Amino acid sequence: MNARASRQVEPPSPRTLPDRTDIAFPFRADGRGRTADTGYDDHVRDMIEQLLFTSPGERVMRPDFGCGLLDLVFAPNSPEFASALQLSIQASLQRWLGDVIDIEALEVVSEDNVLRVHLGYVVRPTGTRRADTFERSGGQ
Fold it and tell me: Which of 42, 53, 79, 124 could share a disulfide with 38, CB 3.0–4.6 Å?
């Protein structure tokens, strides 16, 4: 009888990245009057936010970049709409940030004029597991 030992996989320990400086989003000055910077995991969160709330055609050199969620804040709400929107967001995240994040959970909630995206993901280069909520209202 050939018994095979089961191996438990532990979550990856956070890894350090080589020295790098990531500019904070939105762009601002820090307390010293210099360009504010941020850690890599927060930079990835900022990239996700930019992708979600950029409308296709808004970036001149990348006209197909973005999800265009702000255009959909006042769209009629239905389970079918939420499912289609969720698939669209997942496809955009995988296309533009698939080498940076692994998506673990994605939920889109639309209430009145507020659009909320709950995203659970792992930042690949650092191994950090995150759960962030991105929210915009029709008035912003």
Answer: 42
Of 129, 130, 127, nearest to 13 (Cα)? 127
Amino acid present at 73: V
Q: How far is CA 54 from the centre of its chain?
A: 12
Q: Report the alpha-carbon distance of residue 113 to residue 73 in Å, rounded.
A: 6
CA nearest 103: which of 48, 51, 56? 48
Confidence class for position 14, pLDDT limits 50, 70, 90: low
Cβ distance 105 to 120 under 8 Å? yes
This prediction has a pTM of 0.77
**Mean of pLDDT values over 51-59:** 90
Say if residues 12 and 128 touch (Cβ distance below 8 Å): no
Q: Quote the pLDDT of residue 46.
A: 94
Report the candidate in 134, 122, 45, 131 with the shortest Cα–Cα distance to residue 85: 134
Two structure tokens written together for 127: 């191994």
